[in-house]
């Protein structure tokens, strides 16, 4: 009998897993289910297109291990399939003495994670690379880059179909029934029998886990919207490559940074605003169910208590261009309000525990014939092929 394996979620991690399953089980029938009309409609298709190499992550963490392997696999994949990408490097900027200490810690962490070529730039070297950046210290991370993740996803989808797999769009699996030997998946209209199931439900991963396994959620997804501005064409000369601030350990998110995209456009952002809907890309997107679920979660209340001033500052920068501009000017002081136009927005599936702690590492749970990717935050896209290898090795022997 041909083995049948179901994958839920047509983001980049789901596509990578479906593709790798075909390599490991060449005789199996792989079926990928996506609730939207197209693949990659949410987190995977709305990110900045950065290839992250593992600078920030706790040495020894799953994220650190898979980020380093992930960028190498993703770069090789892009080279093989002629997908637009560029290893252009990035700089991380410290603006004062306090931040230089954080930058030193980042340097040590990146070295421990196996990154090569990390280098502090002299002021002359900085000016040659990014003439408009002002910094107390700047660390060059040469292995970082940019890529067209939509092209990556389209390539993965083409390969899945070419190898006999199915990508079933407009289909939201809402129930799983277990028999002695198989799982029955249904969307209320049709049914599919599978021997194994891998769920990569992104913004809905916790709900899907609870619904399918009948087990309580071990974490909660709280949505945060990241809003971007774009530099006008005449202002693009202000940014050559990738420019990031040093993350402040007192605050939970990375902060406003500058990204040169594969199109040549320059993106500025994001902020991190509590979203009133799990797929809420504007402040007009509201779901009473999603809002109440997050707002009454003890973990989110604890997060607000610990990070109230930060949260209010992010909310204010969503309403005020001048507040957003102030953050950008910390890196590139010459930027003016007239240099921007409104950009895109994405929603980050932020996993959080009851204490209000943000859960930053990858999280995968197996329950019988089901495997659930509960948390795959950045660098989930970069590391997607390595994440797939890890899941196949550890959970789908």
Automatic annotation (TrEMBL):
Signal peptide: none
Keyword Oxidoreductase attributed: yes
Statement: the UniProt record of this protein carries the keyword Flavoprotein: yes
Key words, A-Z: FAD, Flavoprotein, Oxidoreductase
A Pfam family hit: DAO
E.C. no: 1.1.3.-
Domain FAD dependent oxidoreductase as annotated: residue spans: 5-391
Cofactor: FAD
GO MF term list: oxidoreductase activity
InterPro entries per UniProt: FAD-dep_OxRdtase (IPR006076), FAD/NAD-bd_sf (IPR036188)
PANTHER family: L-2-HYDROXYGLUTARATE DEHYDROGENASE, MITOCHONDRIAL
Family per similarity comment: Belongs to the L2HGDH family.
Protein name, per record: L-2-hydroxyglutarate oxidase
GN (gene name): lhgO
